[in-house]
Amino acid sequence: MLADKTYLWLLGAIVSEVIATSCLKASNGLTRVGPSIGSVVGYCCAFYLLSLTMRTMPTGVVYAIWSGVGIILVSVIGFVFFKQTLDWAALIGIALIMAGVLVINLFSRSA
């Protein structure tokens, strides 16, 4: 039961961080109030939920999953909403990050 909550907290932390990072981009260097507030609130939520996750999971595993999935989602949002493109080297790097997150989740006993 606790493990289920742990993964929900981690998912919430990832979603909050992705929203906060997207708001940070939209804030135009913190010059737009709405997105700036969204960024601060999103990061506060993300770190709170991340701290709950770290109560029961190893820090390295939590951070690897949080940052890896966050990088992938932020890259997709950057492409879709901000019309940003990635070159082949970036795409290969992101694919390797995805592979690492999968290896941790599928094969690590620490997760």
From TrEMBL:
One of its GO terms (biological process) is xenobiotic detoxification by transmembrane export across the plasma membrane. The keyword Transport applies. GO terms for molecular function: amino-acid betaine transmembrane transporter activity; antiporter activity; choline transmembrane transporter activity. GO terms for cellular component: plasma membrane. It comes from Acetobacter cibinongensis. The chain crosses the membrane at residues 36-54, 61-82, 88-107. It is found in: Cell membrane. The keyword Membrane applies. Belongs to the drug/metabolite transporter (DMT) superfamily. Small multidrug resistance (SMR) (TC 2.A.7.1) family. This is Multidrug transporter. InterPro entries: EmrE-like, Small_drug/metabolite_transptr, Small_multidrug_res. PANTHER family: MULTIDRUG TRANSPORTER EMRE, SMR FAMILY PROTON-DEPENDENT DRUG EFFLUX TRANSPORTER SUGE. Keywords: Cell membrane, Membrane, Transmembrane, Transmembrane helix, Transport. It is a multi-pass membrane protein.
